[in-house]
């Protein structure tokens, strides 16, 4: 019995080690594909890029690519999401730490626009793929960012930073403005993060009284 248990434990360890290696290989392959796709999209643009272009930038076989991503759109979505992931983490911390609604709006926009301008890879990706990024924002599952803005907006309302507004409309418009102005900003020379931040912030801070007076739209969760 003891011998059988020893063999079973050894087999279990072997399986666990094997699974660990497979997981590490999968993570490495995914990282290689994402990095290659990011470079190709930034250089060629979404419309011109093909899956073959991406595969050529990797040491992997074409079949390996399709184990992770079924088509060009899926890998493009993954690239954009990965580019924004670090910015989203910073944005959440700053929105949750805001003591006024002005801080809630201004610091978030400044962080987002600064990230785009300072991260060259993200800058080139957005500059060359504006239309493709706009199209992706129409897909609900494209990015967790807008949902996080909604959660943080509701938190801001609960903390009294802003009075009764339609949280869904406010969060959706703030996220949309960030994406669109970010795209417009990278097309300009020189890049002006400060002005873009002031412009975006003014859109909401200058109209907040009207938004509060307007209240919630019929059919909203808080209506």
Can you give keywords for this protein?
76% helix; 11 helices; 223 residues; Tetracycline Repressor, domain 2; mainly alpha; Arc Repressor Mutant, subunit A; 0% strand; 2 domains
Structure commentary:
This protein is an all-alpha fold. The chain has two domains: about 1-70, Arc Repressor Mutant, subunit A, CATH 1.10.10; about 75-220, Tetracycline Repressor, domain 2. About 75% of the residues lie in helices and about 0% in strands. It contains eleven helices and no strands. The protein has helices spanning about 1-45, 50-55, 60-70, 70-95, 100-120, 120-130, 130-135, 145-160, 165-185, 195-205, 210-215. The protein is elongated, with a radius of gyration of 22 Å.
Structure summary:
With 223 residues, this protein is mainly α. It contains eleven helices and no strands.
In terms of topology, how is this protein built?
Layout: H1 2-44, H2 51-56, H3 62-68, H4 72-97, H5 101-118, H6 120-128, H7 130-136, H8 145-158, H9 167-186, H10 193-205, H11 208-214
Helix pairs in contact: 1-4, 1-6, 4-5, 4-8, 5-6, 5-9, 5-10, 6-9, 8-9, 9-10
Q: Count up the helices.
A: 11
- Average pLDDT, rounded to a whole number, is 82
Major beta-sheet overview:
none
The low-confidence parts are none
Task: Give a count of the beta strands, DSSP E runs of length 2 or more.
Answer: 0
The string of secondary-structure elements, in order, is HHHHHHHHHHH
Helix content: over 70%
